[in-house]
Structures
1.
Amino acid sequence: MATVSFDISFADQTTINVIAGKAIDLILEFGTGENSPDPLDIIMDIAATHANGTPLRLSDMAAADGYDLLHDIAGIRKHLDRETGKLTGHFRPRFAAPNDALIAEAQGAK
């Protein structure tokens, strides 16, 4: 059984922390059904997605407007298999890296 990897760079972790803070502010502002989301849950969901087969354009995500960021955060939270770190249900985040980045990652480039 595959386990979830959280193997990301310090720079990626720093950017993910920024994204999570922004996402929490948006969730609270727009009321997506979560009263008080746990920042650690959002951080771990983004990191797991990024490290387990769906690399994200984290810098673009951190700079995103509310609608696009909420789309990806809500989709990741809904479709993430927390045992494998893979996204299910054919969900692909808007800020997913292009396929050439997936190929480079599979060949060992980071």
Note: The chain has a mean pLDDT of 89.
2.
Amino acid sequence: GKIAGADIEVYLLEKARVIFQQPAERNYHIFYQICSNAFPEIHKECLIENDPGKYHYVAQGMLTIDNVDDAEEMRITDEAFDILGFTKEEKLSMYKCTAAIMHFGNSQWKQRPREEQAEAEGTEDCEKVAHLLGIEAAELIKGLLKPRIKVGNEYVNKGQSKDQVTNSIGALSKSIYSRMFNWLVERVNVTLDVKAKRQYFIGVLDIAGFEIFDYNGFEQLCINYTNER
């Protein structure tokens, strides 16, 4: 017999890693691969530099790993996309979403004196995020500072503090990565799909990015509680 095909299911993606890493850990490898010198043209398209240490969401832990060449790994990643039938546009869109998260982490905000309202401390990073995601920068900033919420039967704009804006950006960044990850898996399954009836299968579990943390956030609490139940 031989393997006829494969099917991947998303079991658990550790989204917290996207915005925070322990000192001895890294973010997901793609963030460091995309900063490497493997494809300089991607830097121009994604508005990024080749130093991952300049991006807060990427630089909280280790920037390099012994015996790991991020440039070579990036070439392998890009080639894998080609083998799986991804188009040039699909690959670039994923790289842009990845870079948008990096820029999101560098955005700066400040609290207005004597007010429960934050304001942007420079808009360059948010403008880059908006450009990469194909949305209007002004609308993005407005949505972060004064999101539109429903109260009763009416919609109102609610002012956000600096901490609330920072938390919103973190949640958005994790959501972007999670949705991109899910789309990627679905896209890979299209290529790997086999129409023949499945008779036997081998299951392999690999939790993406799962580690034992010194500090556990709300996401880890939910995961642990669910597993124990």
Note: The radius of gyration is 20 Å.
3.
Amino acid sequence: MISMAGTGVIVIGNSTESKHLYQQIKDLTSNTYYKLDLDSDIPANVLFANGAMIHRSRDEMGTTNCSILDEKIGYDRDEVELREFDKLNRTLSSLCLFINRTKTTRQIMSDINDEDINSYSTLTRKGKDYYK
């Protein structure tokens, strides 16, 4: 398991797949990353959102892995207990929903007037008293 734990920070689990994937990332990119090695794939599954790292609780990760994060990560961290989700073989990254926020117009300006409404539709504008 490989996860982005911050800007330019990658957390890597101890599996051969994780190490192989990290090597591929190093070979294919010109970016440099600070690497944190953890002792298994389960604690290496973290999220970085809104400037904070979200990870499993200290009991679930183990004290060794938490001490590595305590020592190396200086920004905000939030711990989440996932014991119930472990029964379903769920990871922390499978529980997130990514939302792409786009800027929307806050005020819609229109030059449609009563003549336009009457000419092009069967709608008519009701007076203010109609809705009371």
Note: The chain has a mean pLDDT of 79.
